[in-house]
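Continuing the series of single-chain predictions for the mutant panel. This is the parent chain; the variants come on the following pages.
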Amino acid sequence: MAAIVRVICLGLALSTLVVAVAEDPVRRTNIKHSPSQMHCVVWGDGPYFGKKFDNENDAGQQFERVKRDELVAIHYDNRFREVQRFKSPRIRSGFNWHHLGEWCKEDHESEAEPATLKLEIGVGATGTVSEELMQRPTQASLIAVDSEAPPALAVRTSSNLVGKVGVIEEELTQLASKASGLLESLGVKNYVGALSLGGKDRSKLKARVAASENFLAGMNDNMRLLEEEFLGAATTSVATLPKDAVSVKAKVQSMEVEVDNMKKRLLALDTSHIIAGFPKLEEQITSYSSKIVSMFKNLGYPDGAAKDFKIQEGATFKQRMSSVSEAIVVAQRSTKTLGSEMLDHTWTSLATSQDVKATGLKPQIESLESLVEDLHHRVSELESAPLNGNVDKAEKKLSLLQAKASELSKRIGSEAPLSMLEATHDSDTSLKARILRLEKTASMAESKFGSLETELLGGAKATSKSPTSTESMMSRVKALDLQVDGLASRAAALEQEV
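Parent structure:
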């Protein structure tokens, strides 16, 4: 009797195991083939889409996202055990969860399905099942933050109209956020600022589609405005089908094409050098204007002759553009003055972006870049000007002449002159003041050597022409150099006589 009982119990256990395996086929997977922390989420009523995660939290978040738009979704743990599942009430008949579990067991090289012909099985509002052979386009990701990185494949996909509308709404929200930042930087109108997605009743598909179409129209206006402002011309948007002449499905397909096109248009704005290049222009102008101010101070001009450029933090893009343009005008005018004084030549001012006829910020910035490059060459030439070195040499030569005049006075027996440079010394060390002192000192030396020549030889030699204060600083220093060389020759002649 005991043996019979044992046989019956063993039979019941085996039948229970068979039933469990049949009801939950995914548990048959060998756990040795599964990563220790891997979780898997699969969704769609056919074809199926899924994603694998290395932790339960991320998988849970993905499950919550997809169940809002999909008819079915399931979450498996690392041992392919069911964590949570979702089935829409619209599916009245039974559903074979086995196919979703098989997806997790397979190796998938990418998260997105390839663009191939697939048999889509959809469940309608009445619970009926329909099949359709369709071409699924590859979904592109939203705008990449790094302009050099290629766009990643989208994770969100859908196999039915409700899910597709949800994806469109999500992508339009992200596109609107990106465009809003650009519009705000320009200080122009946002055409979707007061619009919302989903409609008043999110349970009605037609209301959501109508709201998305209205939002998409506003986004097209935003993109046209951005392209005209940044690039000078707007890209022709993809034509939409008449709203009253197409089905809901056709409208959704048309919006998918338009959203993909809008991604490319916004990406083209992001990958251009406008946004990345303009701060560099501001930094260059800041550096050059600071150097120009220092040069004016070194020459001895009033501080108002030039002014530092300050970057306008928080200003709109247009305001910053205008500020840079004005700074270039001031810098060009200042370098013309500095060139006349320090180099004895000047430059012809180039047209600024205010004079450029091309429309759009990109052509204007390209014009500004050429002007800044020209300014760079000007500042570099001014920095290497020999004016400071020539003044230093003139001061040393005049100091030597003073010593010779004092020695000659002693030999002849006349009154020794005072130190010519010390006699006119003051605290002003600007080039303007130093050149003026040199001119006065050279005039004093001219007079002294003339007295010595008259006393020793009976007559003074012809004096050198002194520079006038109306000439440029470089011209005055050159004239001083000639005058000092002439005085040195006269000093040598007197030394030969005594």
